[in-house]
């Protein structure tokens, strides 16, 4: 059989698959295309029938209005502050705890770890009311601490990082100790660099979870100045639908802006997204 | 800082191996170091997970009606007893079960189909995988905004498509019979890529030799899939069913943003109901009791599923 023949045959055989893939891809992508093109229609435009997927002229006014009519820049800033600090906090808290659980032996370590795993089973709804009351009592409603502190540690991240630390051979630890390194040096200089992929996975998940979260900011950011992008977007919808049609093109522009950072991170760190999901699938 | 600590460790580490007090001191030191590493996260766990869990139980036995209200009256099991005759709550629980029963199988079937299609060695497959994953990274709020307009009865893209296909137009989000179904479809679109990745990991663990052997025995593609691949995917299936059911019972955001529990309470699910009781009516004690009942239901349903799996002799899978 000649090489060329197999290629042609392969292409013919692959054609139906590509057709199916393209159709499915269209199902996934058309809503996004719709979002982008609608955001480029003049503000306050109502939809026409039949729907025009691609408008005749592109109007970037919504993207300007977003920042002049609404305090959207403030929302973005809030989201950035809350997300960055949550990610940094989770990395610091969870990496050190995971290292302690995986590589250091001390009394009580096992029982505390089991306690961490047990809390993963309690759903957020059970803790959300008392958590809100605690934050309220601390006078943290409408503050960055209120938005950030409850989320800076995660049992799942500790679990994931502990698994990563466990795969490293014991010799690394021993060799460094013989060379006179203490536990903190071993942790920072040797173990942390070795689990970079797991750290990236945790960072990506913490980023996505925090940036896209609605429920917690909804409870804590009562003041407009403290709203995150997601909350701002949700309020555009909830408040406007009560007495008038929402300004759809403007909301689509806001959606595009809210999506951009996530898409950027996804493009840069695609394999860590997938790694995190595969890991979450393995843990069952 | 690190150099000073390091010097101390070197000095201490020099103690001869047979020196007992030194060894004990070193062990005590390593105990301290271990706790030092887990202390921040453990303190956080205590304050923001364990205390709230205990506090939540406490709340559920009190008539707590304001966020700043301290010294609320103890009401015993009253909150739990009132629950039994609270029809709107059970209506919400029923809606939650309906949503779960509808969304889990549909989501699993669609994502498995995606995984099978994507699990082929073809040029450009990574692009398709990335495309199918796009909705996963999109927030529920943005997804909601997009789909409210796509499902708009008179100008939405979906009804236009229905019109082209000569199907009757639907009043997707305003019809009490259609709204929950619409949310299930949106959920499927949003989460299929996530389950696809998990299925894909399962599919790639299927040994090629087994499929080849089946093919030599005369099994067609479909037969190979049904008799070889599918049984080998049992652990993935079980994982997706159990986590899917747990997640289904906790659904909130689409109901909050898209339908606000409506129309006519047809999408009022448990968490949305609890949210409203707690943060719009400020019946925080009563809402806490509802949250515990929801947790108990999830717990029992999960146990029943595990029992079924055990009984079918697949206990080694969990």
From TrEMBL, chain A:
The keyword Nucleotidyltransferase does not apply. It is a multi-pass membrane protein. One of its GO terms (cellular component) is plasma membrane. Residues 76-269 form the ABC transmembrane type-1 domain. PROSITE patterns: ABC_TM1. SUPFAM superfamilies: MetI-like. InterPro entries: MetI-like (IPR000515), MetI-like_sf (IPR035906). Its main location: membrane. The chain crosses the membrane at residues 12-34, 75-101, 113-135, 147-165, 186-208, 248-269. It comes from the Bacteria. Pfam families: BPD_transp_1. Belongs to the binding-protein-dependent transport system permease family. This is Carbohydrate ABC transporter membrane protein 2 (CUT1 family). It comes from Asanoa ferruginea.
From TrEMBL, chain B:
One of its GO terms (biological process) is transmembrane transport. Residues 93-305 form the ABC transmembrane type-1 domain. It is found in: Cell membrane. Its main location: membrane. GO terms for cellular component: plasma membrane. Pfam families: BPD_transp_1. InterPro entries: ABC_transporter_permease (IPR051393), MetI-like (IPR000515), MetI-like_sf (IPR035906). It is a multi-pass membrane protein. It comes from the Bacteria. Belongs to the binding-protein-dependent transport system permease family. This is Carbohydrate ABC transporter membrane protein 1 (CUT1 family).
